[in-house]
Specification:
Arc Repressor Mutant, subunit A, mainly alpha, 8 helices, about 190 residues
Length: about 190
């Protein structure tokens, strides 16, 4: 996204925060392509049998984002992180629906790449990942948030630190700890 478009999107986010509902209509075309790329990244590692396309993921996540009245839009990095989180929830709900249709058979799988580093395998069950992330959230909310920002949001360490209001060193430490915990948890759950 070029600089004028980025500035326009940031301005629309500010207007949205101040309660101007029409800002959402102006914001979507400004961030749509970025959201499609993010959605593509989110679903890229899914099994070949997945049925949710990037466009549908963007639309469903957008509805959830704009429908949430509790969000205070503080900037583009936070917006990207929240969009990624919304997409993860859409994917998880979609996987649950498919698993329920199959009565527990072949739940969707998603590639976790090397970010979490499950030993010997980078393909894990999306529902197992969701459950592991929920457990991590109960144990350490900041580590959970770092994983959401870094892995699902695609944010850099610096951007994550900015969103969280903490130091880069803290994000790096929490990222290492969370990856180690998730890797061990997912190996124990049969994820690798």
């Amino acid at each position: 996204m070029d600089s004028p478009a980025r500035a326009a999107a940031t301005n629309e986010l500010r207007r949205l925060t101040s309660g101007e509902a029409e800002a959402a209509e102006r914001l979507l075309p400004l961030v749509y392509e970025e959201l499609r790329v993010l959605a593509g990244d989110c679903i890229r590692g899914e099994s070949s049998g997945h049925t949710l396309q990037a466009t549908a993921l963007v639309h469903e996540a957008w509805i959830r984002l704009i429908g949430s009245e509790q969000i205070e839009w503080r900037g583009r990095a936070q917006f990207r992180a929240l969009a990624a989180t919304a997409m993860r929830h859409v994917l998880t709900d979609h996987a649950r629906g498919r698993a329920a249709q199959k009565r527990g058979g072949n739940a969707q799988r998603v590639t976790l790449a090397e970010a979490i580093g499950a030993a010997g395998s980078t393909s894990i069950d999306l529902l197992e990942l969701h459950e592991a992330l929920e457990q991590l959230a109960a144990l350490d909310a900041r580590q959970h948030r770092v994983v959401e920002l870094r892995f699902f949001g695609g944010l850099s360490v610096e951007e994550s630190a900015d969103v969280l209001g903490c130091s880069i060193t803290t994000v790096e430490r929490e990222w290492r700890s969370a990856r180690a915990w998730l890797s061990a948890r997912l190996r124990g759950a049969g994820g690798g």
